[in-house]
Amino acid sequence: MPENVTKKMLFFFPKCECEEPIIYHLVKDHNLRVNVFRAKVTPEEEGYLVLDLTGTEADIAKAVEFVKTFNVTVNTAGKGVTWDAERCTHCGVCLTHCPTQALCVTNPATREIAFVDAKCIECLACIRVCPFGACASAF
Predict the structure, then answer these.
(1) Tens digits of residue pLDDT in 75-86
(2) Whole-angstrom Cα distance, residue 136 to residue 4?
(3) What's 58's domain CATH number?
């Protein structure tokens, strides 16, 4: 039996495709579990979904091909949040606001902040509190 995997993805919807029941089809027709982290999908506007898809590699691949038939751009890098090390002053304001420690101190001696992409759940708390704009969102 094939092993289940989880892949984080971003779906960008053009105006004309925002009313399609795509999540329904991912679950019902492609046997996937879907965990939506962020979404903005409204009629007459571009939209996006940041989500995890869990299922077999084959089911995920078929589902992604299905989604692409709607002219939806699929970003398999899966991140809408970025951290700019050049802009970060390592002030630490973000640390207590990051629920998963994606922003963390890796070396207590230097107190330098690091961003662990794999831990980020895109709650956007860092964007709201960073006084230097080191954290940004594609949305």
Answers:
(1) 876 567 888 999
(2) 31
(3) 3.30.70.260
